[in-house]
Design brief:
The protein is α/β, with parallel strands linked by helices and about 250 residues long. The protein has helices spanning about 10-15, 20-35, 65-75, 85-90, 95-100, 120-140, 155-165, 185-200, 220-240, and strands spanning about 55-60, 80-85, 105-110, 145, 170, 175, 205-210, 240. The structure holds zinc ion. Zinc ion binds near residues 59, 60, 110 and 150.
């Protein structure tokens, strides 16, 4: 599923562009690097073609303040979710990472320290991915197959290096914006809007949520936990099938 990255990056570097051309192309490249849906720099895994499927994905953990509560909720509803963890937190909370794994959830790589990867040299990108893989594999005793770039930021080198490490790069198509202090109601409204849009496109929903905060352990994600509880209660009745992202690739 990895395709040859488009040549846009090289074109941008190699052409002598007018100022207007640089501005236009720069905008396109910024979009390609930062938009979760852009495939310009190579294909990434987003969602499958069954609009009844939805994946809850939680980034930036593990986090004592939210991950255990989410595990209890998910267990109560017999639902598996996907957790993209930071190596630096896995090293400090290995027992919590193992709990997530033992409960049958999918765990992916979210880098060691959460940098903006599209600004980084290849050596740094490789080290960030390799180091997080190491933390996860040492802790879980299982290989890691999926990777989500922090902020969704990428460039051809990010996708290439991820592929070299055997990682499928995963984006999302539904943003809860739960890293902002907006409260449960608005988180749920954002998710609902995204679910409808994905469904109208005949796609499953890959929902970006956060059980942690990248700066420090202990982030308050109580609004995310409450929103997740509401979603799971609804999904138990409305025909939505919860999946983990490996169901799509
Ligand atoms: Zn993140």
């Amino acid at each position: 599923m990895q395709t040859e990255p488009a040549q846009a990056w090289k074109i941008a570097e190699g052409l002598a562009l007018t100022a207007a051309g640089i501005a236009a192309l720069g905008g396109a490249l910024t979009y390609a690097a930062l938009s979760a849906g852009s495939q310009l720099f190579g294909s990434t895994l987003i969602a499958g073609n069954d609009p009844t499927e939805a994946a809850l994905t939680f980034d930036d953990g593990p986090n004592d303040n939210a991950t255990p509560a989410l595990l209890d909720l998910l267990a109560a509803h017999n639902v598996r979710a996907t957790f993209f963890m930071l190596g630096k937190f896995v090293r400090r909370r290995p027992e919590l990472a193992r709990r997530v794994h033992a409960a049958g959830h999918l765990i992916g790589n979210h880098t060691e320290t959460h940098p903006w990867l599209h600004y980084q040299r290849a050596r740094v990108i490789r080290e960030e991915l390799r180091s997080c893989n190491q933390a996860l594999e040492d802790t879980l005793g299982a290989p890691v197959g999926y990777f989500r770039p922090p902020h969704g930021a990428r460039r051809p080198a990010v996708l290439r290096i991820a592929a070299e490490l055997g990682l499928t790069t995963v984006q999302w198509n539904v943003m809860a914006l739960d890293w902002l202090p907006i409260g449960t109601e608005r988180i749920l409204a954002n998710i609902e809007r995204g679910l409808v849009r994905a469904r109208n496109r005949g796609k499953g929903a890959n929902i970006l949520l956060h059980d942690g905060g990248d700066r420090a352990l202990g982030a308050d994600r109580s609004a995310t936990v409450v929103a997740t509880a509401a979603l799971l209660t609804r999904w138990a009745h409305d025909g939505t099938h919860a999946v983990t992202v490996d169901a799509w690739g």
